[in-house]
Amino acid sequence: MVTITFSQKIKEACPELSVLAIMGRVKNSESDENLWREISKVEEDIRSTNRIEDINKWTPIQATRQAYKRLGKDPNRYRPSAEALRRRILRGLPLYKIDTLVDIINLVSIRSGYSIGGFDADKIVGDLELGVGEEGEIYHGIGRGELNIAGLPVYRDSLGGIGTPTSDEERTKIELATSSLLIIINAYSGKEGLLEAGSYAMSLLRRYASIENVEAELISRMNRKEIRV
Q1: Are 44 and 112 a contacting pair, CB within 8 Å?
Q2: How many CA atoms lie within 13 A of 26 on its CB side?
Q3: SS3 assignment, position 188
Q4: How does pLDDT run across 104-122, given as a tens digit for each residue?
Q5: Which member of 49, 71, 117, 160 has the greatest number of CB atoms within 10 A?
Q6: What is d(CA 117, CA 78) in angstroms, rounded to the nearest whole number?
Q7: 179 contact partners, CB below 8 Å, separation of at least 6
Q8: How far apart are CA 58 and CA 49, in angstroms?
Q9: Share of the chain above pLDDT 90, in %
């Protein structure tokens, strides 16, 4: 398992933050029809039970937005990914079809409200620290080009930033050839609901990506512990 730590600035600004990291060997594939039937059902449920003006009031999304504000970032200009995906659905647009692993991460995100980092673990160099983006820091968001991450929570390995709640970085992105997966579920609202989201992610990864050799760790400001998911 990649070791994940929090910077002092994150600990002070986001005291309720808990993250669940799951790592394992996987088999990625083109978008799966059965998985997409599940995704379509969740999209329908979201459209029938939610209003676009209420998205940012949902506790997991609201807490992520508050973290942005405390760190100096405008969450209306740089939306957390879970919020952006739900807004897309409620505007009547389908989710993007990428590949099975990315589709699973997006499904868990829209159901749980957590922004989830998904990485090819073989591309990560060293351990990870969750810190705060700085002015002028170079970061290429997936499909977004150069992204201003100043004031965003950012996971960094020894080479630089790889993940924020708004967008992950091109350098460590998941591809069809990805065989070692790291996902990080970020719960700025605390632990409630986090393990359920992890269990849901694992059920999808077992069914659609044949995950094995799984390691999982629950990390907060005060402690960390290995868990079974």
Answers
A1: no
A2: 34
A3: coil
A4: 999 999 999 999 999 999 9
A5: 117
A6: 16
A7: 25, 26, 27, 28, 122
A8: 13
A9: 94
Strand, coil or helix: 197: helix
Q: How far is CA 44 from the centre of its chain?
A: 22
The answer to whether the CB of 33 falls within 8 A of the CB of 200 is no
Residue with tokens 């449920």: 45
Cα distance between residue 126 and residue 191, in whole Å = 26
Q: Which two tokens stand for residue 51?
A: 């209003």
Mean pLDDT of 92-109: 95
User: Taking the mean position of all CA atoms in its chain, how far away is CA 192?
Assistant: 17
Q: What share of the chain is helix, strand, coil (3-state, %, to 5)?
A: 40, 25, 35
Query: pLDDT by residue (tens digit) across 45-79?
Result: 999 999 999 999 999 999 999 999 999 999 999 99
> Rounded distance, CA 160 to CA 146, Å?
14
- Whole-structure pTM value: 0.95
The one-letter code for the residue type at 186 is N
Are the C-beta atoms of 19 and 1 separated by less than 8 Å? no
DSSP characters over 84-140: HHHHHHHTTPPPPP--HHHHHHHHHHHHH--EEEEEEGGG--S-EEEEE--TT---E
